[in-house]
């Protein structure tokens, strides 16, 4: 009985070691790639980029006033639409995280859950 238990324990240790080694070798290059892009894409903007963003926003306002938006190609319009959709989705994800609920706010006095018969 003790020999069988020892055999099962040895098999468990061997299997866990094998799985951990495989997981580490699988995850290491992917984590490295993630960190490479995260350092660039997820950092806060620098002061130089803030000036560039304000110039870009002014250019956007000017093109909206002059009607330049009517000459946008379909590919550019699709790209801009996808960017807008991504920003909206991140806004909604932030709202859900902030509320800590998917449904909405529970305002006392405004919500009535009881049934009256």
Characteristics:
0% strand, flat, 117 residues
How is the secondary structure organized here?
Layout: H1 2-41, H2 47-66, H3 74-99
Description:
- This protein is mainly alpha-helical and 117 residues long.
- Helices cover 74% and strands 0% of the residues.
- It has three helices and no strands.
- The protein has helices spanning 2-41, 47-66, 74-99.
- The protein is flat.
Nutshell version of this structure?
Helices cover 74% and strands 0% of the residues.
Broad structural category: mainly alpha
The description of the largest β-sheet is: none
**SS element count, helices:** 3
The percentage helix is over 70%
> How many runs of DSSP E, i.e. beta strands?
0
H/E series: HHH
- Name the average pLDDT: 88
Percentage beta strand:
under 5%
Shape: flat
Q: Rg, please?
A: 27 Å
Distance separating the two termini: 66 Å
Pick out the low-confidence regions.
none
